[in-house]
């Protein structure tokens, strides 16, 4: 869940919103609002989102949203990292100038349009301080691993050993379990 609940001109966070009947409705403390001022599905975990809606059983909350529902912050994140690391895995070892330009532009745009806006703001900040490395597959793969570790640290998760990014995302593990 995005811990960051800072104020943003277009999308303020709040501890209450006004419900349809005009009465103020209290929000869970960590709820991040979207640009429309409503609770943001892709910025919150399903558990936090549904504790506001109170519609789902405990078991469903523990396993995240049903597979045919809009993604929460975790499902969106897992799918997005899969795409991003897979792009690094298929990136050329010696990319041309235009291939380098394409991925640089893609990463810049990705960081601007990522659906969890609080995640996107932090990712843009990371990219401003750590320019994307696109000169080779190895450099790009390691940069992406570091970017992912930055989010892992923020969320209190274990850091990934970036010397193993290729085994995880390109070749499969040396023990052969992916073959
Ligand atoms: C750009 C971006 C920013 C995000 N920002 C936030 C945020 O601010 N707040 C928030 O709550 N969530 C954020 N997320 C989502 C968050 O990173 C996780 O995706 C989500 O919490 C689900 O985590 P997970 O434990 O299932 O595994 P994930 O972190 O999604 O990782 C998926 C798999 O990738 C592998 N892996 C883990 N770390 C690395 C690494 N460093 N390099 C290579 N492979 C690795 C592991 O095998 C892991 O199982 C963000 C996601 C993205 C793409």
TrEMBL record:
Database matches in Gene3D superfamilies: 4.10.320.60, ERV/ALR sulfhydryl oxidase domain
Swiss-Prot/TrEMBL keywords: Disulfide bond, FAD, Flavoprotein, Mitochondrion, Oxidoreductase
Enzyme Commission no: 1.8.3.2
Protein's name in the database: Sulfhydryl oxidase
InterPro entries: ALR/ERV (IPR039799), ERV/ALR_sulphydryl_oxid_sf (IPR036774), ERV/ALR_sulphydryl_oxidase (IPR017905)
One cellular-component annotation, GO: mitochondrial intermembrane space
Enzyme class: oxidoreductase
Pfam families xrefs: Evr1_Alr
Cofactor names: FAD
Organism: Amylocarpus encephaloides
PANTHER family the record matches: ALR/ERV, FAD-LINKED SULFHYDRYL OXIDASE ALR
Swiss-Prot/TrEMBL catalytic activity: 2 R'C(R)SH + O2 = R'C(R)S-S(R)CR' + H2O2
ERV/ALR sulfhydryl oxidase domain mapped to chain residues: 69-169
Principal subcellular localisation of the protein: mitochondrion
Positions of the UniProt region annotated as Disordered: 1-31
GO molecular function per UniProt: flavin adenine dinucleotide binding; flavin-dependent sulfhydryl oxidase activity
